[in-house]
Write a structure and sequence with these properties.
Its EC number is 3.1.11.6. The chain is of the alpha+beta class. The protein is about 50% helix and about 15% strand.
Length: about 90
């Protein structure tokens, strides 16, 4: 029987996007294999939900920082403006 990913007491909010996705992928893999005890499955599923929400929040924050380049008629950059035009 394969062991489930370790979900140590590392606070989800302190993880980088990449680390959170890595841990989330390990959880999904363990749950898909189906070789984790029910209690442990519930525990890592809940951790996975927290990781998913954290990743979504990080992605949303990144999207809010994206700027689009304004170009003049010749295609030369004039500057930047927020993606949503605010």
């Amino acid at each position: 029987m394969t062991t489930a990913p370790q979900t140590a007491a590392i606070d989800v909010s302190s993880l980088s996007f990449e680390k959170a996705v890595e841990e989330l992928e390990a959880i999904v893999s363990a749950l898909e294999r189906g070789d984790v005890a029910l209690d442990r499955s519930i525990e890592i599923y809940e951790r996975g939900e927290a990781l998913k929400k954290h990743c979504e929040a990080l992605l949303s924050a990144a999207e809010n920082r994206i700027e689009k380049i304004r170009l003049d008629r010749a295609g030369k950059p004039l500057g930047v403006e927020p993606l949503d035009g605010e």
